[in-house]
Design brief:
alpha/beta, Rossmann fold, about 260 residues, seven-stranded mixed sheet, two-stranded antiparallel ribbon, single chain
């Protein structure tokens, strides 16, 4: 347990999120991980995969619960990230880490009771390949659990304010987040279930991606329902507010019968 805590504290994202110098940022991300770990308890003794696992914080936290998964696999794009996680979590045999391009093997296809994908799809330009991959990884009765930021309505105004203040304080990577014009901000505040802004696309050499600007979780939900059955929609950090007033939306889905 002590080794896992130390390994988590060394993680690149954990240092910016869970251990952020901004208390609001740390609290919000802490509540997000609390939600994820609570959902993971439904798969105690089973196999789970975290797609876009980052520094492995979530998977390590699941291993510290009374009902951990039997096996947890983290998948990331770069060999450097995978190597870092393998090094820090070497002493936890129930944790393993692979590159995304390794997920096509028989050890992975149709092998997971749950696939988690948290704070990833808002950055993906084309969701189709990812959703097809999720379908191939799940068992027939498995569950897909997606977490994305809410970047519409009142939460957008709150987040942009927090990001601006964090940027002034040189905390995190918030100064790099795309700015909004007044018209774009108004479109975001009153966004419905259709795409309300043309999203900027960036490429730093590893392929095209979006930042948070213009992301609409309701558009993702509609796209998800073309291939999956969305069973539940949850919210964090304050679940009772619902996703329209929260900072993160959670989509829990299954394969169609």
């Amino acid at each position: 347990m002590t080794d896992l805590r130390g390994a988590i504290a060394q993680g690149h994202y954990a240092q910016k999120q869970l251990f952020s110098r901004d208390r609001l940022v740390a609290w919000s991300h802490g509540r997000r991980f609390d939600t994820a770990v609570a959902l993971a308890r439904e798969f105690a003794g089973k196999r789970i995969l975290d797609y876009g696992s980052g520094d492995g914080t979530f998977l390590a936290l699941t291993m510290m619960t009374p009902g951990p998964p039997a096996l947890a696999v983290g998948a990331e794009l770069t060999a450097e990230t995978v190597s870092d996680c393998r090094r820090r979590y070497l002493k936890e045999p129930r944790l393993s880490f692979v590159q995304v391009n390794e997920l096509g093997g028989s050890d992975h296809l149709g092998q997971y009771d749950a696939v988690f994908c948290m704070e990833v799809l808002e950055h993906v330009v084309d969701w189709n390949p990812e959703l097809a991959r999720f379908k191939s990884l799940l068992k027939r009765d498995g569950r897909l659990i997606i977490s994305v930021p809410v970047e519409t309505g009142l939460p957008l105004a709150v987040k942009q304010t927090v990001r601006r203040i964090a940027g002034w304080r040189k905390i995190g990577h918030y100064p790099g987040n795309s700015s909004y014009s007044l018209a774009e901000m108004a479109a975001g505040l009153f966004a419905g279930a259709s795409q309300h802004l043309r999203r900027p696309v960036f490429d730093t050499g590893s392929g095209p991606f979006h930042d948070h600007k213009g992301f609409n979780w309701m558009v993702l939900k509609d796209r998800l329902q073309q291939d999956f059955v969305v069973e539940r929609v949850l919210a964090s950090p304050l679940p009772r507010l619902g996703p329209h007033l929260a900072t993160q939306a959670w989509l829990i889905a299954r394969l169609p019968e």
